[in-house]
Amino acid sequence: MDEALILCRALHYSAAIMLFGASVFQETSPPTDLARFIAPPMRRLAALAIVIIFLTTIAWLMLESGEMGGGWVDASSPNTVSTVLFETEFGRVWQWRLGFVAILLGLLMSRRYGNWRVIAFWSALVLASLGFVGHGAMQTGVEGLLHRSSHSLHLLAAGLWLGALLPLLACLRVLRHATLGEDVEIALRRFSYLGYVAVATVLITGVANTWFVFEVWPIGLWSSYRALLVAKIGLVAAMLGLAIVNRFVLTPRLRTSVEAPRQLRVNTIAEVVLGFSAIALVSAFGTFAPE
Fold first, then answer.
1. 50 in Cβ contact with 104 (< 8 Å)
2. Domain residues of the chain, as ranges?
3. What is the pLDDT of residues 163-182, one digit of tens each?
């Protein structure tokens, strides 16, 4: 059951991050013609993400019920699921999340999932509300509220950074397009400003979240939780290195270098791989006791 829960968490985090980041990018970064050009694949991405979010929201509730109960039998027991949903802190948060996800599903069924501003709003609530379950929920009072808030900001910033890389890749595919090349450069410049905010927020809240859990630096490597956390930090550091190269080395050379556009695409793909690898690690060590 642990493996199923880790997989479910990874899919849920990935879909929520993709949906939020892609919708914010589409709403804020590409000029009108470019946004219209990449809209079809982005709409398909949004539809897939909403379906995955819906299915994994239900599955996560059932798997959590099994974890709190006696295993697979309780995961499919209406009584156990109902008890978890209505009588636990996790369940109270999940009731709100089910409502947010239901609205996203309604937008998908009404074919309004291309309204990026609306999708960004509801997907932000779906993503940020994950900060109110997990290790942050174990703390109470002001410290617990600060930890939950920091975790939520961390998720939103990570979503803005990682999720926006997918539509950015779609833009880079048409960088040499006769009429859209200039629009791509405009989108890159606009996204870079959001990227500064997202990266800074990820780093600040990441440090804060680690402090809330351990209240000491450095954190050491004497448990699986700590080892996977350090590995995740290493992946984020590698992403940051690639992002710096992309912004300050490759982007200024797009007009003067034949190699720069190709290398920018390769680096962006590498950022995506590193980012989703970090999500896999978070999904795993999030099920461990922080020790």
1. yes
2. 2-285
3. 999 999 999 888 766 577 78
